[in-house]
Amino acid sequence: MEAEERPSKLQKTEHEAGDSTVDFPMSRVVQDPSINDDKHKIDAKSEGCTQAAIDTAIGTTADQIQQPTLSKNQLKKLAKQRRWEDQRERRKEYRKEKLQKKRERSKALKAELQANGVALIPGVHVEGILPDKNKIRREARARAVNVPLTFIIDCNFDELMHDTELKSLSSQITRSYSDNAKAAYRASLVIASFHGKLKERFDTVLSKNHENWIGVKITQDDFATAAESSQRRMHEIRHPNLQGAFAEKSESKTLKEEGEVVYLTSDSPNTLMELKPYSTYIIGGIVDKNRHKGICYQRAMDKGMKTAKLPIGDYMQMASRFVLATNHVMEIMLKWLELKDWGKAFSQVMPKRKGGRLKSEVSTPGSSEAVHDTHPGGGKILGAESRAGADDADGDAREEVEGGLRMETEELTGNEREHG
């Protein structure tokens, strides 16, 4: 029984010796045409599904390539920025309510004082405590004297700065405008290469307040083109009575021809001993934690432009590392226009907590050079370009001033790029 159920082995077919190939007869198989049609439909359907799956996979992979994974710190910064943006309207309403309450309080107090027969003093708040700051500001601006001098802030460093550094630079530019607007002797201010992320920040976060600024030219032209325009404009405007630091000079063709264009940079071998009328001074508006050394000097050299550094080492004894922001350089030069004394200008602008002292006030004998801290790379820290880094973020918060009005408090992150 088992032998009958067991399949028999196929007999091995012997072939002729030397014949290595075997020819099998081919049988023709005829299939139903409907079977072929169904098969084609199934194949097409399968092909479509497969192609869709491939496209989806490619799209997912492309998204993964375009959207790199963010670090924990980056995610925190994004979340913080979103919260700030989400609360914009809320902050706006809070400021309106605060201002309305202040007006109502002043109005009520004014009515009470008048009812009691108290004479109100013009230019003084009804509280009788603080003078009217707006009135004082308007009067100061009315008394300000325009001098034939131009300061240019070169902002063509957009691609070299991080978002936090751009934020710091925008604060420095805003304060520079405010300092120049309320200075006793006011120079022309030009913001050059105003484009990219910096312009985007002014247009969005800062609500385009720069469009209301008075006496400032904002242009997308580079610093060289802006300097040519400023020189031509100063020569066209007459200044019959020069005042301030230029009071001893009188307008003349020779004086105009002596005007020069100077790029301020710490890498320059030249020292700026005085400001000259009908001249243009360029400040590098870059906040880069000292990553790009000598970039302002190199750009000036490429344009064949004169360079110089502020004479900080000739007047100041520095006890610790010190840096200056773009607005500090502006303020120092504005003070010089008023006082014609670098020592007094430095001492009035530089914060006392930084340990800077006038050499004339140092009792102990010292060298003729100021004590400079050095960068790990060996370069001097005191410079003429604006730098920022982590070691100046020690709680020194600054309030942004938009067109002379106090805006949201913005901490100037980092040790702003040094000037000297």
UniProtKB/TrEMBL annotation:
It is an enzyme of class 2 (transferase). Residues 137-357 form the SAM-dependent MTase TRM10-type domain. One of its GO terms (molecular function) is tRNA binding. Signal peptide: none annotated. Keywords: Methyltransferase, S-adenosyl-L-methionine, Transferase. Residues 1-43, 68-107, 353-420 are annotated as: Disordered. The keyword S-adenosyl-L-methionine applies. Residues 1-18, 82-97, 395-420 have a biased composition (Basic and acidic residues). This is tRNA (guanine(9)-N1)-methyltransferase. It comes from Arthroderma benhamiae (strain ATCC MYA-4681 / CBS 112371).
